[in-house]
Write a structure and sequence with these properties.
Order of helices and strands: HEHEHEEEEEEEEEHE
Distance between the termini: 38 Å
Number of helices: 4
Strand content: over 45%
Shape: flat
Helix content: 10-25%
C-alpha cells in the first residue's frame, strides 16, 4: 500500500500546500476532509444597550414586557440573583417603550449603546465607562517614586457568538462585569471597588435579543452625583441602582 506523501511549506503561511500521492478514492476523501476545515466563519455585529434603572420594581416592570403571552404577564423576581431573558424580535419595541417612559420620568438612563464586530467563536469585548488612575507611591533606593495604576470603572462586556448557518440559531456566551467606586479610604486615599459579574449562555434566533439583569450596584452619591430622580436620604449617602444590559447579534457576512 502506498502511503500519502505530504509536503508542507511553512513560509509564507498563506501559501501552505499539501501534496498527496494516493489512490483516487483516498484523494477524494482527503479533499473532502480539507473542505470541512477550510470553512469561512460567520461575522456578526454585536450591539449592546446598557441602562441604569432607579429601582428593582421598575426593573421588574421592564422585564414584564418580555414575558407577555396573550393577555398574561409574568413578573420576574430579581431577589434570587442574576437573570437572563431571551426576547423575541417583536417584543423589543415594547421594551423600548417602557425604558423610554422611565427615562422621561428620570427613572432610567441609557448609559451607552456601542457595537463591535466579531467572528463566530471569537469574543467581542466592549467597555462602557471610564478609565481612572490612582497614584501609588513606592520607596526605592531611599526615595519615593510615583506610579499611575489604571482602574476601569463602569460596565465591561464580553460576547462570543457561534453559528455559521445563514438563517440558523446563534449561540451567545455573554459575560458582563460592573465595577463601581464604592468609597474612598480616608487614610490612604485609595478607592474601594464594588464588582459584580455574571455569565450566560443563550441560544437565540436571528433578530432576537438577550437581556441580562440583576447586576445591582451601590455607590456614594457624594462621589458620583445623582444621575436619576430619586429622593435623597438624610442619613445615608449610599444609593442603589439596577443595571440592565440588552445584547443582540446580527450576522453580516463571512470571513475571508
Amino acid at each position: 500500500m502506498v502511503m500519502p506523501m505530504v509536503i508542507v511549506h511553512p513560509y509564507p503561511l498563506y501559501v501552505n500546500s499539501l501534496l498527496a500521492v494516493q489512490t483516487p478514492a483516498l484523494l477524494d476523501k482527503i479533499s473532502a476532509d480539507l473542505k470541512k476545515l477550510d470553512v469561512r466563519r460567520a461575522q456578526f455585529e454585536i450591539r449592546v444597550e446598557a441602562w441604569e434603572i432607579a429601582s428593582t420594581g421598575e426593573l421588574n416592570q421592564t422585564l414584564a414586557a418580555t414575558r407577555t403571552v396573550g393577555g398574561d404577564r409574568q413578573n420576574l423576581d430579581l431577589a434570587t440573583g442574576n437573570v437572563s431573558v431571551r426576547v423575541e424580535k417583536g417584543m423589543r419595541a415594547q421594551i423600548a417603550v417602557t425604558l423610554n417612559a422611565l427615562s422621561a420620568k428620570g427613572r432610567a438612563r441609557l448609559v451607552a449603546s456601542p457595537y463591535v464586530t466579531a467572528l463566530s467563536g471569537e469574543a467581542g469585548t466592549l467597555f462602557l465607562g471610564q478609565t481612572r488612575y490612582i497614584k501609588v507611591l513606592q520607596n526605592r533606593n531611599g526615595g519615593q517614586t510615583a506610579q499611575a495604576l489604571p482602574l476601569q470603572i463602569g460596565t465591561s462586556l464580553s460576547v462570543t457568538p457561534r453559528g455559521n448557518d445563514a438563517d440558523g440559531d446563534v449561540l451567545l456566551a455573554v459575560s458582563p462585569r460592573v465595577s463601581t467606586v464604592d468609597e474612598i479610604e480616608p487614610r490612604t486615599g485609595l478607592p474601594t471597588l464594588g464588582i459584580r459579574e455574571a455569565s450566560s449562555l443563550v441560544r437565540v434566533k436571528p433578530g432576537e435579543t438577550v437581556i441580562l439583569a440583576g447586576l445591582d450596584f451601590e455607590f456614594d452619591s457624594r462621589l458620583k452625583g445623582r444621575t436619576l430622580k430619586v429622593l435623597p436620604s438624610k442619613r445615608d449617602s449610599r444609593e442603589k441602582r439596577e443595571m440592565l444590559v440588552l445584547v443582540s447579534a446580527e450576522r453580516i457576512g463571512q470571513s475571508g
